[in-house]
Design brief:
This protein has about 130 residues and is mostly beta strands. The protein has no helices and 8 strands.
Length: about 130
Amino acid sequence: MSDIGKKIWIFPDAFLPAKGHPYKITKNDDQFGHESLCMLNSSNNDALLNISFYYEDRDPIENYEHTLKAKRSLHLRLDKIVLLNNQKLLTEVPYSIILKSNIKIVAQLSRLDTTSDHNSFMTSLGWGEDN
């Protein structure tokens, strides 16, 4: 099943919401507003990921690296990643994501917004390319 997915995924509509109010409280971690890159690697090999974040009015943050283990799924919380020079992604600022992998994976972007009394959740498949 290593031929499932694409090597490049583009998500032009990203927007990391402010933390907001807890959506639910669990013993492991309260669920606040966030975005996640949700990925599946069905192959027998680890996927080496390279992720870049592009903004409308500032320089991109490029080449964040992560490994998606073989035969695993991953929900990479974008509010919890630490970038180069201890940078974090900005909240409440539109941006776009380019996700590259050395092997084919499946990816989607999910957002939970808990900044109002009415929580919202959205998910979207990105545009995929094999190059």
